[in-house]
Amino acid sequence: MADSLGTMTANLFTCGVGLAGSTPCWFLASNSVAMVEASGLVREIDLAAQLAPGGRYPLRDATAAADGRFWLLVNDPPASQESLAGDARRLIRYSPSERRFESLELPSAARAILDAGGDSAFILFKDGSAADCRIPAKPTR
Predict the structure, then answer these.
(1) How far is CA 6 from CA 2, 10, 46, 47, 129, in A?
(2) Distance CA 64, CA 57 (A)
(3) Residue-wise pLDDT tens for the chain (141 aa)?
(4) Sequence-ordered list of residues with C-beta below 8 angstroms from that of 95, at least 6 positions apart, any chain
(5) Which residues pair with 104 in a beta bridge?
(6) Cβ distance 94 to 69 under 8 Å?
(7) Taking the model in full, what pTM does it have?
(8) Environment class of residue 82 by beta-carbon count within 10 Å: exposed (0-12), middle (13-18) or buried (19+)?
């Protein structure tokens, strides 16, 4: 039964909130997110280098902001193998035009990205609170 549960959850597919004609979609057990454009074009963003090793279900939530950047809420590895996912404690902003990832360690476990754009995202935390979390823009060289 445990093996069937693993196979079933590995094949679950979900999508986040899309703005500006892009919608982020991913398989729960995947290390990448597919950005599906309104035109039908699909761009894959590989997150493997951005994720903590050992996580079985690394991506908690994703959204495409109106400014063209993508925001990702990623899980820490679970504390035990019985847990399907760890707590999401890192927020990542990806700028496709610059192919640049920037991240922020969150103060507590998070559940969802409620809104995002510019240098901040409004995050829903596990305890029911919500807060604006900023990732300051880094100067380009």
Answers:
(1) 6, 6, 22, 21, 31
(2) 20
(3) 455 656 666 678 888 887 767 888 888 777 888 888 888 899 888 887 777 666 566 788 999 888 888 899 988 765 545 555 567 888 999 988 888 889 899 999 999 999 998 899 999 999 999 999 999 776 655
(4) 68, 69, 102
(5) 91
(6) yes
(7) 0.79
(8) exposed
Token pair in block for residue 21 = 């004609």
DSSP-assigned beta bridge partners for residue 34: 25, 44
Determine how many CB atoms are found less than 10 A away from the CB of residue 81.
9
The token duo for 134 is: 């900023």
Q: What would the 3-class secondary structure string for the chain be?
A: CHHHHHHHHHCCEEECECCCCEEEEEECCCCEEEEEECCCCEEEEECHHHCCCCCCCCEEEEEECCCCCEEEEEECCCCCCCCCCCCEEEEEEEECCCCEEEEEEEEEEEEEEEEEECCEEEEEECCCCEEEEECCCCCCC
